[in-house]
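hiii so my PI (J.) wants the whole complex modelled not just the main chain, which honestly fair. so below is everything: two entries, each one labled with what it is. i double checked the lines twice but i was tired so who knows lol
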Amino acid sequence: MTGSAALPAWLIIAASFGYVFLLFAIAYWGDRRAAAGRTMVANPWIYALSIAVYCTAWTFYGSVGRAASGGIEFLTIYIGPTLMFALGWVVLRKMIRISKVNRITSIADFISSRYGKSHLLGGLVTIIAVVGIMPYISLQLKAVAASFVVLLHYPEVGAPDASSVLPLFGDTALWIAALMALFAILFGTRHIDATEHHQGLVAAIAFESVVKLVAFVSVGLFVTFGMFDGFGDLFSRAASLPDTARLLTLEPVTDWIPFTLLSMLTIICLPRQFQVSVVENVDEEHLNKALWLFPLYLLLINIFVLPIALAGLLHFRAGGVDADTFVLALPMAQQQPALALLAFVGGLSAATGMVIVETVALSTMICNDLVMPMLLRFAWLQLAERRDLSGLLLGIRRGAICFILLIGYLYFRLIGESYALVSIGLMSFAAAAQFAPALILGMYWKGASRHGALAGISAGFLLWTYTLLLPSFARSGWLPESFIDAGPFGIALLQPYALFGMDGLGPTAHSLFWSLLANVGAFAAVSLLDRQSTIERIQSTLFVEVFQHAGNAAAALLHHTVSLPELRSLAERFLGRERTEEVLNEYAVRRGIDLNSSALADGELVQFVERRLAGAIGAASARVMVASTIKGEGVGVEEIMQILDETSQVLEYSRQLEQKSRALENATAELKAANERLTELDRLKDDFLSTVTHELRTPLTSIRSFSEILHDSPDLDIAERQHFLTIVIRESERLTRLINQVLDLTKIETGRMKWQITDVNLGEIIHQSVVSLRGLFEERQIAIETALPPDIPLIRADRDQLIQLVINLLSNAQKFSPAGTGRVCVGLTKAEGTVAVRVADNGPGIPANEHEKIFEKFHQVRAGRTGNPMGSGLGLAICRGIVEHLGGQIWVESEPGHGATFIFTVPLATGPSHAFGTKDELAGT
Amino acid sequence: MAKSILVVEDEPNIVLSLQFLMKKAGFDVRVARDGDEALAAVESKAPDLILLDVMIPKRDGYDVCQTIRANPAWGSIYIIMLTAKGREVDREKGIALGANDYVTKPFSTRDLTDKVKQLLDNAGL
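here's the output for the full assembly
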């Protein structure tokens, strides 16, 4: 031992132990406060500081080393997380929400749960995490051991030889590892439920973040302002030397983008980061503070990295001092034992924080996603039947912690010696990055499948192993060095650092490129080709649409009722009697029900207990255990499918019902409309019958009256008798006409009229009608004239009906024209495709409001003159029926006092009409 | 003094037959061809009995009946409604409006004459 009395070994050891026991005290105090209900972690500052567990011994020592050789390139490792928190916080928020809803215990649990609660995937992620993170843990042990040895040589600054025998305490790294294991076991495995927050642990981690920041900044301030006159002096001196000036220039480094991407992914994929930022998160709101506080922390701790590196290079220009130890070596060289000790404690805190959180996270993964599923599979262990497994669970986790630290220590002893801190760290980063595609795409792409995730992660891990892990073995002499330089079996294309001839990138960037390419490629391709199982679809929806689903309604569907005692005993096996009671009470209180009064557990309670179990043994195992409880009908995929099928059948059935009821509604509406039409028709028919009856009774009354008068009055004179007989005859004719008209109209309206359609000459029709009525006109001295063009086209019509139509109109005109001065004119004109016949009189005319009504049945225009029978009131209705049957129209143009003109049109039989002929007037006589 | 009858009817042949029948029975007969004419005739000299057709122009028989019954001075006028509407509701409506009797067309001339005589003879007693 060569150290001077100024910093004896016992002091360093005492400081180390003192510091570690301080951590114990804080963690213990934190747990006590939590137990008393006065939680400390309900504080966004503690949350944000705990995320700074990202800054490990690698940051504390390694960044300076990397800056000393690569300049500000070291910053990429901090730009990534800053970007992720500043820009990618939506991803973080979603991860936190999903994990809370599903009671996720680790990143392995997250991925397994997302892809259908797959044991295989959870196990694979766990194995990769353990293998990948192992170098990282060993790196921490190496850093602590190395810094201890460096400090032990105080004040002599020289190349540390970590392998140098330490007679007094033996192997420092082993001691450190043992202490950390103890801490992790004490404060990381207090509870069965891994989703319960380790409040003491988080408090201690936050404290450590403060310590390492204070220590590093103190050294930085001392170096910058104590050894030099501030940044200006330091940088200008560095710029004057070619070796250090090189570090100040921003060279275009190809590795910048890959490193930034890498650190972006790892800030969410590293098991310990997932642990602190997701699992240990007590309040989603805390993320808002961490979004700026964590990047600020990164900025502060990095301000002095370059100054310390430059100062180290300037001060130890002769060489011989490892740049990784500058943080310690500079205070030592300046005879500052207290500061050197502070720096050592800072490094120690950075290392312990990382190791403790990482081992807790990994041990949970090993227990829940690797060991328990395997143990549950061995039927001969009869684990599923055992009464209390809570002790076993804790035992497995504690064992896992010891195992991880032991492996980490061995890795450090066997391999770690040959590597710089940064290289080891980057290797772990690249391994953790393989989880990113399955993790991130799984939150946003429902189509991402279990097989896709398995393929992607496997492919990525294989390439990582080949391009980073195997070369590290080669460097350590486990494989021939030619494996790196010439490729396996001398195949140059397969060189692990220049795969397929791709060189120009550093080993990490190169590995990251190939592994992520293979990962994402396999993941996407397999997912697209794959068909998801039902449970996968359910889980993918729960994850992707976590903000849309308030609860876990879909999953509640999957459970049948279970007997409550069975569920209780299942929970007791894993959670213990006391905890089970608490869980069930919590449920009862939340739901406001009394569990003691029911023998059955409903789907929701089963779901609740399964989540609690998932917290203890992982989602996949909890699923198996709960399924085994439901006797005789395990909740297998088939059953889920069946339930879903039934649901969709019910949906289909209800859709059909809905359709039918809609059809029924339509039918009802139609029926109602039809009924209304029928009622209306009935009313019209009733009206018609009533009117017909009235019209028939009127002539009948006259006939009967005069017949009886004639019969009862034998003393009537001849003239009177003659007069009365004439009335009887006229009224009889009227009755006959009326009956014929009613029959005609009914035939026309019901379509039973026999139409004799032939080619008809309208001119001839008009002529014949005029001739047949001439006597009537002459009787009342009414003039009748016709105006017909010479070439009258033929129309298709029923001749007799057409004559009746014209006669009806002419006799109407005659009836309303004044005797002596009356004048009726019949004209015929041709228009486009039709012929129009006009019958005009100089009678009293028809008021506008009657123009439509006169064509209705029994609507009689009461002319001023009475005494003349006005007709049946059916004539015009029959006219309209005939015209409409022939495809034409009929209407009246009239003003009261100016006569009336009735016009009807009939379509032409063939072709376009000819030109108008000359007017031919025939004076009526 | 002979009793007077007002015939309210727009169908000329029916007017002629009623005129003949009532004159033959020994009554004074006046004729109105629509509702307005009927009311004017009643106002100028109230008849003992009105043969009132329902379907007449301007004011129908129901209206005329109602108007006459609304005036207490005309309370002693007998009204027999004549109508070609044979439905029971029409008959009930006529009676409800104050008609003394209701005769459906075509009617028996003897029955009608008997009804008129019966009403006017009872009034005379």
